[in-house]
Amino acid sequence: MVGIAGAILLALALLPPVAEPQRFQTLADGRSLFGIANFVNVVSNVPFLIVGVWGLRFVARNAANGQMFARPSERWAYVVCFLAVALTAFGSSYYHLDVDSGRLFWDRLPIACGFMGLFAAVVAERIDARLGRLLLVPLVLFGAGSVLYWRFTGNLLPYALVQYGSIAAILGICAAWRSRYTHGAFVVHVIAIYGLAKVAEVLDARIYALGEVVSGHSLKHLIAAVAAYWVLRMLQSRSVVADRS
User: Is residue 227 within 8 Å of 211, Cβ to Cβ?
Assistant: First the structure.
């Protein structure tokens, strides 16, 4: 944890501030329907709510299942992850109803916390269960803090480090340590699917121009929800291979 904090502080000291990308201020698909502004961008968040609630229900029902969680405490990282996914549906919908930086805060807050929950889960399952449990709260606070820092300074760098740094860390951990569960490679699939979502986001206007049916930004929501579902699918499929913690 000290190393992570040190890396973030060093990056803040050495790297220039990151300004808000233009794509978060303008959306290619601004159509209104049924009196709802940016209708497709708003309703495409519904899958987040479905997957988040589904995941929370699954974790609650299987909290004592030794094949799902070798240590009961491991479930809390997934509670954070799926709760964040569910809250993203509300935060993102709120933002897309009236695009501005104040509303964007509520979109980014659950996303940052969700990534930290997944990061803690990977640490617990591949390095040490106790370490993952101890890191969960500090990591979530780091995630929330990065969004607060952006909100009050306009510097997006800490939030970018939390999101993309956690992705890099998860991939590094997966490369260096084996999971104590089967289907551990699914977490790499999650990252790959999320990467596709980010590509769709960048190509927002180009995708919309293909036929003005759906924009890249709306597709990003749907693909990111699939990534979240793949986390749930991993839990549904796995069983303990070895208890190494």
Answer: no
